[in-house]
What we know:
Four Helix Bundle (Hemerythrin (Met), subunit A); mainly alpha; 5% strand
Amino acid sequence: MKLKAVDISRTASASTIVFDVLRKAIIEGExxxxxxxxxxxxxxxxxxxxxxxxxxxxxLEEHGLIKTQRYKGAVVAGLSADEAAEVFDLRALLEPAIxxxxxxxxxxxxxxxxxxxxxxxxxxxxPMEWGNLNRVFHKTLYGASNLRYFIxxxxxxxxxxxxxxxxxxxxxxxxxxxxxxxxxxxEACEAGDADRASLLLRDHIQGAKLxxxxxxxxxxxx
Amino acid sequence: MKLKAVDISRTASASTIVFDVLRKAIIEGExxxxxxxxxxxxxxxxxxxxxxxxxxxxxLEEHGLIKTQRYKGAVVAGLSADEAAEVFDLRALLEPAIxxxxxxxxxxxxxxxxxxxxxxxxxxxxPMEWGNLNRVFHKTLYGASNLRYFIxxxxxxxxxxxxxxxxxxxxxxxxxxxxxxxxxxxEACEAGDADRASLLLRDHIQGAKLxxxxxxxxxxxx
DNA sequence: ATATCCCATATTGTATCCAATGTCCACGTT
DNA sequence: AACGTGGACATTGGATACAATATGGGATAT
Lengths: 222, 222
């Protein structure tokens, strides 16, 4: 007997769903920085009580995406230019290490998928998609690595700056440059040159940081 | 008017207290790996309802300290040897960067405090204290750095392996070596030699990793 | 004796209700 | 008019009650 088995024990609970949706909305910038998250309002949107919402909010705070104050509620956390730069610096340390570990493990399928995402990235007409495709491209390459904790930390870092990356891809010619650099990284991976790939990746991230700082939203949220 | 003002808005909520206590109990190994966390039991211990307990559990899971399954409850998360090694590798990347940033900023007071902790570490007769003193020593040095996100991530990493470090300090002669290496790092900091300090720190962490792997608890928790 | 099914119990997930606190505006005082 | 005050309302924190699911043991059939 062969079924497409689903692990029912992992069926999403209400709080998980709320968490996932809110996280996505926040990292994509749909809910702007400083915007308050009203428990009642959210509970109504999901047709639940406030209990699962509060658990989702707890997790989001631990995740670093929101700030809460007792009896005052939660607001979407914002980053100063310095803080955003620091997140990029962390990425520039971790992601090259992940990629170096991943390159020897990459299958043909993995590389092909990465190339697809890379192409989709360059040809997509929809700016809102760029952010997703950019992230998917990176994740596909990292997926071959066994450094799962590195990847987890990196994902968290990405969550914090995803909004800014999206904005920066639209402004300036961030798209073009990202596209070129992605291709170079991909080719290094295909050539099996882990060192070159990781160096290119580091420069790619540092370049994105500098580009972001130039166009950073002027209001440094305290 | 000058009062010793307290920020009342930051008074700890029940869920915060529960989170803090559980976190401490877990990272110190007081609650062993795989042990279930019963909501009712914990709620009774704190004389609250299960609601704050559940929020604490949500945060602990996001923090990576426990694993939960729907309708089955939460258990303390354990690390395999490989996973623990990976956490150390991450620390070995981040903490030297923090220290390099911190050295030029260290005040006399900061260095004096670090030296005190270092001494307390070597003279404390209580093995259970070693883990705390070890961590306080590191934190004191890092405190001068402005890389708050790096420090946050590092703290999280420490939380995951704290238990193992404590065990390893007791076994073998981990204490002696840690003491010697701490002193060397401290002296490099006092001399203002950021490069040397960060290199020593990296070796210190990698050494701790190797020592840990030798004595790793034999049951690789899946 | 063994296996299977069913139900009692334990435990988690969620809804509803109450308490505690923050916010804001009307009101009065000067 | 400016300022301080008090109280109504909004919102969050927590407790209790109920629903959904897992677990384990005993009855029954073979």
